[in-house]
Design a protein that fits this description.
This protein has two helices and five strands. The chain is of the alpha+beta class.
Length: 92
């Protein structure tokens, strides 16, 4: 099992469509820790840490998002795994 950390920026109709809450549910289902928040420019930013396979599942999910979202672009930045999180939370 290889651990991974990524920072994801999702652009499109991703605010006000339960994107953050849906990502939190998916993260819990797959044992991923980190956080997700809205950015002032309309994007959503998330930090995902966990098993590489499960992180990749969440990154793929971000390309589609929940039913009412419309994802235009996903930027993924690989970062050093830090194991600093004990849960996944929505930041405000």
């Amino acid at each position: 099992m290889t651990n991974q950390r990524v920072r994801v920026f999702v652009k499109g109709k991703v605010q006000g469509v339960f994107f953050r809450q849906a990502l939190k549910v998916k993260a819990k289902q797959h044992g991923i820790f980190g956080w997700v928040k809205n950015l002032t420019d309309g994007r959503v930013e998330a930090v995902l840490e966990g098993d590489e396979q499960n992180v990749n599942i969440l990154v793929e999910w971000c390309h589609g998002g929940p039913a009412n979202s419309r994802v235009e672009d996903v930027e993924i930045r690989n970062e050093k795994f830090t194991n600093e999180f004990s849960k996944f939370e929505v930041l405000y």
